[in-house]
Amino acid sequence: MEIIRAAILQLQPHKGPPAPNLQRLGEILGQLYRQAPRCDVVVLPEAALTGYFLQGGVQELAISADRLASELEAVLRSHWPAPLDLVVGYFEADSGLVYNSSSYFSFDSQAVSLLHTHRKIFLPTYGIFDEGRFVSHGGSVQAFETRLGRSAMLICEDAWHSVSATLAALEGAELLYLPVASPLRGLAGEEPSNITRWRQITASIAQEHSMFVISSNLVGVEAGKCFGGCSLAVHPDGHALVEGPFLEEAILLSDLDLTELRELRYRNPLLGDLQRTWPILATRVPGPNRA
Q1: What percent of the chain has pLDDT over 70?
Q2: Is the per-residue pLDDT at 285 higher than 90?
Q3: Residue 286 predicted with pLDDT over 80
Q4: Most buried one in 20, 48, 63, 146, CB count within 10 A?
Q5: In terms of Cα–Cα distance, which of 86, 91, 98 is closest to 26?
Q6: Rounded CA gap, 84 and 82, in Å?
Q7: What CA–CA distance (Å, rounded) separates 26 from 256?
Q8: How far is 58 from 264, CA to CA, in rounded Å?
């Protein structure tokens, strides 16, 4: 598929169990189908099924990826009568551990398939964040095949570390999905500094690696912290195809033309240079005590 229609759901979830948020997701998908039945992939924010600031509550509210696939199948059968892919941010329970995860599901109008799960690697434990106390670290960045193209996922702070997107690019990703829960910070300027920073990060990733970046951020107030929205779909040349409103829920539609991506990679072969040089660099990465 050369042109992909992505729908970014910039949402304020109900804080608590996933069931009410899954029910509301069905209502939103029904609305979306009536407005734009030709949609290929829907992207939800980080922690979209429970809210983000759960602290120790993640243990009782986390669900397995397989259970989520089953719950989504029921929702989609009721509200979406066509094939659809979904990127869903949630707290994942697996083998007694909890992860801040994003899973990629593919619905063929009959059943839901789980294609890949990314577990957040960089867990903030500073300032207003305490995530590293309550969930386990993921350990890899992997690209995977979908009917829409080769894809990868990162979650929020993962993208603030440039190596994460570099690993996704080395894996051949053309589409990078980025669920985010980013509370407003740096309020002294014309706009919150984290909103400005997200524009810079997503544009830099897209431009350096010639990939589409699709970022969905929470909105609303939770535990006294305010999520700002301003979700983004960014073209491989670095310009924003669409940006969500500030502090408001929204459904954002964007068409992603993979032929433009491949033309950019041909004209500006930074990714090819990286792939050729990385094996040399990887053997020379210094350890913490090496000069």
Answers
A1: 98
A2: no
A3: no
A4: 48
A5: 86
A6: 6
A7: 24
A8: 42
The domain locations on the chain are 3-282
Please report the sign of the dihedral spanned by the C-alpha atoms of residue 84, residue 87, residue 93, residue 97: positive
Tokens, residue 5: 């229609």
Q: Which amino acid is at 258?
A: L
- CA nearest 146: which of 215, 61, 87, 73? 87
- Strand 41-43 relative to strand 232-234, pairing: unpaired
Listed in sequence order, the DSSP H helices in the chain are: 18-35, 58-61, 65-79, 162-170, 193-209, 258-267, 270-282
Q: How far apart are CA 47 and CA 14, in angstroms?
A: 11
DSSP-derived 3-state class of residue 148: coil
Q: Which amino acid is at 22?
A: L
pTM of the model: 0.95
Query: What local confidence, expressed as pLDDT, does residue 288 receive?
Result: 67
Both tokens of 257, joined, read 């033309």
Read off the tokens for 96. Answer: 């007694």
By C-alpha distance, which of 95, 88, 97, 105 is closest to 123? Answer: 97
**What confidence score (pLDDT) does residue 255 get?**
98
Q: What is the pLDDT of residues 98-141, one digit of tens each?
A: 999 999 999 998 899 999 999 999 999 989 999 999 999 999 99
The answer to whether the beta carbons of residues 179 and 48 sit under 8 Å apart is yes
Residue 125: burial class (beta carbons within 10 Å; 0-12, 13-18, 19+): exposed
- Residues 15, 1: Cα–Cα separation, whole Å: 37
> Residue 240's CB: how many other CB atoms inside 10 A?
16
3-class DSSP state of 118: strand
Tell me how far apart the alpha carbons of residues 200 and 74 are, in angstroms, rounded to a whole number: 38
Name the residue type at position 276: R
